Amino acid sequence: MLQIPLWKRVVIIGLCVIGLGMAAPNLFYNRVEGHNDALRTLERSGALSDAQAAAKAAWPDWLPSGLVNLGLDLRGGAHLLAEVHLDEVYKARMDALWPEARKALAAERATIGSIRRVPSPGGELRIQIGNAEQIAAAVAAVKALATPVVTLTGVGQNDIEVTGQGDTLTIRLSEAEQAATDDRTMQQSLEIVRRRVDAAGTREPTIMRQGSDRILIEVPGIGSAAELKSLIGTTAKLTFHQVVGRSSNPDQPAGTGNEILPDANTQGIYYILDQVPVVSGDELTDARPETDQNGYPAVGFRFNPTGARAFGDFTQNHIGEPFAIVLDGKVISAPVIQSHIAGGSGIITGHFTSQEATDLALLLRAGALPAGMTFLEERTIGPELGADSIAAGRVAAAVGFVAVVALIIASYGLFGVFATVALVVNIGLIFGVMSMIGSTLTLPGIAGIVLTMGTAVDANVLIFERIREELRTAKGPARAIELGFEKAMSAIVDANVTTFITGVILFVLGAGPVRGFAVTLIIGILTSVFTAIYVTRLMVSAWFSWRRPKTIVL
């Protein structure tokens, strides 16, 4: 029967109302965006300026406030492609393993003789022993430090490989542990970059892994690529080291296990430091801008329990000695330990401006990157280009809409009007769904919406042509309409399922602009099937119940 149950009518109308309601804020884009920005500022700082308070009040809190986020090509912004230095993590692992290996070998000193670390590539740890004949015993002692790799692919393997040749032990990460370390490093880098960008209040950045060691970063609305690089920081790695000595010669030999680093504030001053840090920035739980005892800008910090214990033990055992606070390979402060610092909190002093102290606190609070990054590609896209793209997209959408509507109405008359209303609802639903899921609209995404305008009425064309065929068999109009919808269903489903599969493949395998096109295509397929089958049928059913025509001209 052509009649649609009441519950189904309520569901169809309800879904349309919800979808169009979620899309409505996009008609007041600037006002809603200002309201959302004010809410984010309120969450971060707990206070608003007068202008921000006015922006918040410009849109009622009880109304939907989700927006379709504009992509980099529409809003303008910065694009970076960064390569993560994974080999730095291997070196850090080997440096951290040296004290444990030395302790394990020291227990066998009577057998193996003297122990000395010798120069080696960054991803290896080489240890020379005094008695080459006992190399097997030394290998066994160090192998006892190995732990199983905690990954599905690394089951049954240990994290380190230990080999011995002559009087030298060679320790390196196993292949399984290297793969697991690479994955952890990339995930940590992604999360830290995301936290740093989010902490600055930017809108809907795109931060994703590309390949084995690269990160794509796109931030709409930011001024330039240089500003984005400054926000992210290449390493922002904070460590605390024991000071071995001080020098004015950068080429002075530092000694085994030591390194020489410059003073960040005074040119010509260099510090010789123990390479292995006492505590690292990874163990920080909080960092905030403060002032020192002289009223100058400084950064206060607090460690987690593990870092607090290590920091407290070190300060207790080295009272009267200097220790170095190192940031990005430079000594920013080298105070003398005056007393035992318990509780895991302290302050970083230096020649900071207020802005520098605030920026440093933000970087440290967001976390330290596990490895350095090199920016392979950087682009700045101006907002003018984005405005031109939006204008071109509007023209393309308007031309496409008018052409489709003119053709469908010319071909099917009143039924073409029904299809046009369904098309308008369909476009509204696309924006509603994108607003609900926080999707980003790009220029290829606009192309996907324009394409959807054509494919959306395709289902209506199939239905209307089926109705025409049924009318030719001398069936009544009610039966012809009912059969038209029923018999066109299989063709509609087949055509849209194949297109949907293509869209999913584009989304999974594609990146950047391809994904933007795929998102709108997938959403458009789902909404167009809904509007063509259910919304159009509801309008035709309501019209037929009201007019009760004896014949239909189609």
Automatic annotation (TrEMBL):
Boundaries of every Protein export membrane protein SecD/SecF C-terminal domain copy: 376-542
Domain Protein translocase subunit SecDF P1: 186-243
Subcellular location: Cell membrane
GO MF terms, alphabetically ordered: protein-transporting ATPase activity
Main location: membrane
Cellular component aspect of the GO annotation: plasma membrane
GO biological process, one term: intracellular protein transmembrane transport
Superkingdom as given in the UniProt entry: Bacteria
Topology with respect to the bilayer: Multi-pass membrane protein
SecDF P1 head subdomain domain sequence ranges: 259-371
This protein's UniProt keywords: Cell membrane, Membrane, Protein transport, Translocation, Transmembrane, Transmembrane helix, Transport
InterPro entries, alphabetized: SecD, SecD/SecF_arch_bac, SecD_1st, SecD_SecF_C, SecD_SecF_C_bact, SecDF_P1_head
Listed transmembrane segments: 391-410, 488-511, 517-540
Subunit structure: Forms a complex with SecF. Part of the essential Sec protein translocation apparatus which comprises SecA, SecYEG and auxiliary proteins SecDF-YajC and YidC.
Family to which this protein belongs: Belongs to the SecD/SecF family. SecD subfamily.
Its biological purpose: Part of the Sec protein translocase complex. Interacts with the SecYEG preprotein conducting channel. SecDF uses the proton motive force (PMF) to complete protein translocation after the ATP-dependent function of SecA.
Designated name of the protein: Protein translocase subunit SecD
Species assigned in the record: Paenirhodobacter huangdaonensis
